[in-house]
Design brief:
Oligomer: single chain
Shape: elongated
Number of helices: 2
Radius of gyration: 15 Å
Order of helices and strands: EEEHEH
Helix content: 10-25%
Distance between the termini: 31 Å
Strand content: 25-35%
């Protein structure tokens, strides 16, 4: 067993586009495309990983029309449950500064 550093967790969301036709209630939806392809249905993925290793601690897959800022709180809560320790630094982009995220202190 290796003792991995769990002091820093990096969170980020990305999308994966597809030529699948979006359906009501389906996971592939039209949304803001980070790939500049608004014509493609997409799925959104939030990843929480140990920094600097890139070891995945939590993954969320949601509909492609979900906003990024709503994905941080469940990811942080999931990682907190897994690591069960205090003093972890969570690093994310500017969308992590949304008001709902600030309640995680």
């Amino acid at each position: 067993m290796y003792e991995l550093s769990t002091d820093i967790v990096r969170l980020d969301a990305t999308t994966a586009g597809s030529y699948i036709e979006p359906t009501e209630g389906g996971i592939f939806q039209l949304g803001h495309s980070k790939d500049h392809r608004p014509d493609l249905a997409q799925v959104k993925i939030m990843l929480a990983s140990l920094d600097p290793l890139g070891w995945t601690e939590a993954t969320q897959v949601v509909a492609g029309n979900e906003a990024d800022d709503s994905l941080y709180e469940p990811a942080v809560k999931q990682v907190r449950t897994i690591l069960d320790q205090e003093g972890v630094l969570y690093v994310g982009d500017c969308k992590m500064a949304a008001g709902s995220i600030l309640s995680l202190r």
